[in-house]
């Protein structure tokens, strides 16, 4: 049986990865969340979720959680047996690698305020990063445990995980895995222990495979559109092959969200001198798809394009690197006016495009509406709608 004794765990970062793990573990352990955003800390203190995630909101409101949030590193880290790092590692186009500075900063804080704590990195990092941190700090208690969470369903995916992977074979790694499995509501969760670099590679290759699948069906859709064929019939037929299956096959404006674009580019950078063709093609395919979609929109000669939602996934409020933004930029470069309907935006302007919060006014002002995914509230303007959503699923 897993060891369920109460443990103090510090979680750095209250984005969808950090917050979902903090809420998951706080049902069984004492969790102190460290976050630089005072607004997020205040919301968690009030029992409110600072991100859009139905399960997180429900747990914060209804469950008895031993969870505190603070901006004070010493307060959060002192006495912690585990420090979970879930700070952002955005892809830096100047260096062609992830910016891991926030992770390195938390590691340094943890070594000062919780020197005996096992540090578990959940942020996505380059292959070899954990070993480098161990060497630079002289501390072997730094582990990597990849997350496989969907934005908007992050806590659900923690409660019902596809697998738990920890990049170490020692006792702390097993104890951390036990805590995740014990807090989950799914039975018989697959658990895998690997070396650290292998765990890092699992994360990048998993997301790149998903991006490859998105890119494949998007290129199928582009071919069908270019030749006047019915893409749904082709996809239905292809998906009847059991080795392919009828999942993750719905065309889109391109793979986006937060993880897939940055993780594919980081994996490509990790190859460096290693011969490859496929990984580069996956990255390039996404650019080509957005070019194709933008050309299709521009060819319709709209005067005002309405951009319906910047988010990539239903139930999410995160639109970093969403593919529809790439479409919007290409359309605007041709001098076409764009207006944006995005309730998650507090600003009245998005990159010099008007943000319209009145859906009725948005529908009236746009003569063409683009949407990465269909929504029931657009059914009355179907004649204005441009989407590649064939199956009505994310």
TrEMBL record:
Pathway it acts in?
Nucleotide-sugar biosynthesis; UDP-alpha-D-glucuronate biosynthesis; UDP-alpha-D-glucuronate from UDP-alpha-D-glucose: step 1/1
Task: Name the reaction it catalyses.
Answer: UDP-alpha-D-glucose + 2 NAD(+) + H2O = UDP-alpha-D-glucuronate + 2 NADH + 3 H(+)
Report which superkingdom the organism of origin falls in: Bacteria
- The positions annotated for binding NAD(+) are 40, 89, 124, 151, 262, 320
Q: Which Pfam families match?
A: UDPG_MGDP_dh (PF00984), UDPG_MGDP_dh_C (PF03720), UDPG_MGDP_dh_N (PF03721)
Q: Which family does it belong to?
A: Belongs to the UDP-glucose/GDP-mannose dehydrogenase family.
What's the protein called, per UniProt? UDP-glucose 6-dehydrogenase
């Amino acid at each position: 049986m897993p060891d369920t004794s109460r443990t103090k765990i510090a979680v750095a970062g209250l984005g969808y990865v950090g917050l979902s793990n903090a809420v998951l573990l706080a049902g069984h352990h004492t969790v102190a969340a460290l976050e630089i955003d005072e607004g997020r800390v205040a919301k968690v203190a009030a029992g409110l979720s600072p991100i859009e995630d139905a399960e997180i909101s429900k747990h914060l409101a209804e469950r008895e959680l031993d969870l505190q949030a603070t901006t004070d590193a010493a307060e959060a880290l002192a006495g912690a047996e585990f420090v979970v790092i879930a700070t952002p590692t955005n892809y830096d186009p100047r260096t062609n690698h992830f910016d891991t500075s926030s992770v390195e900063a938390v590691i340094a804080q943890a070594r000062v305020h919780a020197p005996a704590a096992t540090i578990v990195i959940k942020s996505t990092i380059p292959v070899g990063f954990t070993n480098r941190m161990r060497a630079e700090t002289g501390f072997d208690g730094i582990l990597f445990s990849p997350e496989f969470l969907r934005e908007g369903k992050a806590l659900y995916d923690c409660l019902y995980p596809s697998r738990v992977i920890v990049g170490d074979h020692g006792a702390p790694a097993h104890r951390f895995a036990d805590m995740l499995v014990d807090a989950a509501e799914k039975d018989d969760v697959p658990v895998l222990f690997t070396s650290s670099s292998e765990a890092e590679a699992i994360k990048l290759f998993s997301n790149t495979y998903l991006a490859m699948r998105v890119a494949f069906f998007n290129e199928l859709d582009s071919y069908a559109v270019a030749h006047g064929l019915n893409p749904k019939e082709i996809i239905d037929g292809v998906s009847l092959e059991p080795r392919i299956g009828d999942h993750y096959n719905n065309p889109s404006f391109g793979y986006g969200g937060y993880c897939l674009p940055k993780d594919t580019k980081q994996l490509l950078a990790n190859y460096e001198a290693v011969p490859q063709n496929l990984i580069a093609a996956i990255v390039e395919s996404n650019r080509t798809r957005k070019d194709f979609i933008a050309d299709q929109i521009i060819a319709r000669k709209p005067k005002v394009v309405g951009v319906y939602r910047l988010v990539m996934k239903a139930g999410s409020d995160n639109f970093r690197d969403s593919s529809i933004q790439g479409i919007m930029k290409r359309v605007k470069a041709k001098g076409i006016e764009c207006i944006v309907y995005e309730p998650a935006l507090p600003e009245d302007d998005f990159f010099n495009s008007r943000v319209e919060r009145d859906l009725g006014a948005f529908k009236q002002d746009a003569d063409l509406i683009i949407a990465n995914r269909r929504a029931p509230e657009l059914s009355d303007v179907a004649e204005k709608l441009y989407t590649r959503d064939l199956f009505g699923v994310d």
